[in-house]
């Protein structure tokens, strides 16, 4: 096997993803209570005992809500960059020194046969990152909570087999929606969240023959619908000359309240 993964939950109410290689299993973000994360994992027939480590993208509560309790309960090592550690320590409570690991913002590390690459993203957290995972020739990339896809990010995402890509909002729905103007401005800004259109535009530069599936993620419950996100992304792709068959490439759903099915990436 290359990799397998499940997005346990995705959206501003809580985020968590499990990624496994043959010899390692990691959890990325713990954005629900520890109890809820256990329940979501149980739905995919895994538990905290199956994990080797936790990786953190950034310190916003929808990414670290249950981190401290979950890491302590399962005595798991936690990886985050130095600034993120500084920003989240008060919230997550005590993590023993031997379980605290500082990961470079743009770095690579390995756990058994799982290669984990972190890369800087543009979001209004102290030093947020995305992650790419590789094992046995398979590559999975996670890119959510980013205001825009920089050239640097684009280069990290190239050659992915599968991606989890933010498609947070429909711009018109957000503009007409009930959020206060300062929050709308934040979401639409360079350190906010990717719109459906922006996700489609990013995919125009990423859709090589290798990319087989993109999970649209971190959808707003207020300003988006999965069908609308897919329609918009597809329209952008088609307007840019990208037409594909279902067996060549697919846009897939994530959910704020339930896990995606396990997806196997690569052989
Ligand atoms: O009252 C609010 C609602 C949301 N936010 C933040 O906005 C973005 C997008 O939220 P969605 O739920 O995806 O629409 C997210 O970062 C929320 O935390 C907010 O600050 N205040």
UniProtKB/TrEMBL annotation:
Keyword Nucleotide-binding listed: no
The answer on whether this UniProt entry bears the keyword Repeat reads no
Which terms are listed as keywords in the entry?
A: Hydrolase
Recorded catalytic reaction(s): these are: 3',5'-cyclic UMP + H2O = UMP + H(+); 3',5'-cyclic CMP + H2O = CMP + H(+)
Q: Where is the Metallo-beta-lactamase domain?
A: 13-218
| UniProt xrefs under Gene3D superfamilies | Ribonuclease Z/Hydroxyacylglutathione hydrolase-like
Q: By its UniProt entry, which InterPro entries does this protein fall under?
A: Metallo-B-lactamas, RibonucZ/Hydroxyglut_hydro, WalJ/YycJ-like
Gene Ontology MF: a single term: hydrolase activity
Record's function text: Counteracts the endogenous Pycsar antiviral defense system. Phosphodiesterase that enables metal-dependent hydrolysis of host cyclic nucleotide Pycsar defense signals such as cCMP and cUMP.
Q: What name is this protein filed under? A: MBL fold metallo-hydrolase
